[in-house]
Amino acid sequence: MKFRIVSETNGIRITPRGGGPYAAGMPSTLLSDRPGFTPMIARLIGMMTYTRETTLEAVQGWTPEELDLIPDGHANSAGMLLAHMAAVERIYQLISDGHPDPDGALEAHHWPGLNLGQQGRNEIRGRPLRHYLEALAQVRAGTLALLAARDDAWLDEPLPLWGDTGNRHFMWFHVFDLASHRPQENTPTPAQARVGAFSAQVVRACQPPGKTRRSSVSSSRCRCTRRCATS
Prior knowledge:
Elements: E1 3-8, E2 11-16, H1 39-57, H2 64-68, H3 78-96, H4 102-105, H5 111-115, H6 117-123, H7 129-148, H8 152-156, E3 158-161, E4 164-167, H9 168-180, H10 191-203, H11 226-229
Antiparallel strand pairs: 1-2, 3-4
């Protein structure tokens, strides 16, 4: 069954639907004010929502077998990368909110998605698409609750990031940048090719700064982890 991902104020609603990608219309490209959010945060949420919806449209109708497939030359399946998106967003909730021990607070079920590698390959398998959609929606609801309680000054406050100085605005940019790298699904392709395209596009955003890309997914680690997130 295919699902329609619908953005709502408190997260993403998942409903069955028919038709191909964007059958119900493209996600909104108007970045504007949103009730309950300060202006800059509202626009950030608009970008996060757009990339989330278009990314999930790319995997609509995928079977568990397709989600588990690891193409030649890649280290992760599409399912692993969807789990990674949820885990990254959750750890950045904890980091940007100033939790004293983000690693300790991160729920156990997110660790395979955050670490990827052999742990991810062993544990993230055999799950239907709906499992990933619900996990992403649950995390996004927490993100929206966090951002609704903060303002633009909080978003722009300078903080240590990746051995340099960044801010929460960039942290959350990385969350939706990770999800914005997706395959173009305009024409049917063999399963291995389209899963490979999804893997290559998503993980491109995870490569550490200054690293040579030996392949699209050559490492089990990325700069999304707690160890790389702050100095």
